[in-house]
Amino acid sequence: MSGELFVEYQLAAKAERPDLFVAMAAYGDYGPGYIGTAIAYQQGGYEVTEYASSNVTPEVEGVLMAAIKKLLQPTVRPSIFHKRIFSNCQSFLTSMFEMNTINS
Description:
mainly alpha, two-stranded parallel ribbon, 4 helices, 52% helix, globular
């Protein structure tokens, strides 16, 4: 993932598949900054305030959690779904970044 994910995404991924070693890869190039959870945007903090380093909205949590669940389903072959899930997440994050850039 591009950007700096909050640890809650790693914990959710691990909880989804406790039988596997699961590690979230983040800090990619051209990232949208911090990718917080919905509650983090309500609580505030330097990572998620409107003038901070987050170029996504609280809705990102639902998109990422759905992708994590789908990707880690034991009956789903990641080779089939990985590209589609990644593409959907990447498109969402790109559009959030562009909207924030235009609105700022």
